[in-house]
Design brief:
The chain has three helices and seven strands; from the N terminus they run αααβββββββ. With 158 residues, it is an alpha+beta fold. The chain folds into two domains: 38 residues; 103 residues, 3-Layer(bab) Sandwich (minor pseudopilin epsh fold), CATH 3.55.40.10. A four-stranded antiparallel sheet has the order 3-5-6-7, covered by helices on one side. Strand 1 and strand 2 form a beta hairpin. The radius of gyration is 33 Å and the shape is rod-shaped. The termini are far apart. Keywords: Membrane, Transmembrane, Transmembrane helix. It holds the Pfam family N_methyl. This is Prepilin-type N-terminal cleavage/methylation domain-containing protein.
């Protein structure tokens, strides 16, 4: 019968074999590193290009202004035109200061078509305006409509 008195060899052997393992195994460390790598790659792909954000914000604002001017034109029955000018733009056919007439960023430039007819007909011709930034001329955004749907924003091809 084993005793638990000090110096008992069976007790010392049992204590040595039940000792917990200190640290992690190599496989556990590799799994954790793989999880961290996937998470950091996902975050890197989720980050947006900060150069395009002001231009995209400008395009979203312009699309909303186009839809607002189009609704006002249909309500009043008077034609409304948007015209790009050197220091901004203007809406012809609406009362003065009815809608904003300037860009949020002074670096915004209209390339291509500089006049958009917004109504009063319920269906208008397909129209598009391409805006770009003077700071980043390689990045441009297109504000378009097919004539039936509201204006939408898409990245313009280079």
């Amino acid at each position: 019968m084993p005793t638990s008195a000090p110096g008992n060899k069976a007790r010392e052997r049992a204590r040595r074999t039940r000792r917990p393992v200190a640290g992690f195994t190599l496989l556990e460390l590799l799994v954790v590193l793989a999880i961290i790598a996937f998470a950091s790659a996902g975050v890197a792909f989720a980050l947006r290009d900060s150069a395009g954000d002001p231009l995209e914000r400008e395009a979203q604002r312009l699309a909303a202004l186009f839809d607002s001017a189009r609704a006002r034109s249909r309500l009043s029955g008077l034609p409304v035109r948007w015209v790009a000018v050197d220091d901004g733009f203007r809406f012809e056919g609406l009362p003065a200061n009815a809608l904003p007439n300037h860009w949020l960023s002074p670096d915004t430039v209209v390339t291509g078509r500089r006049v958009v007819v917004l109504g009063p007909e319920p269906v208008i011709d397909p129209q598009a305006v391409v805006i770009t930034s003077a700071i980043h001329p390689g990045h441009s955004v297109r504000v378009t409509t097919d004539g039936l749907r509201p204006f939408s924003v898409s990245t313009a091809p280079p």
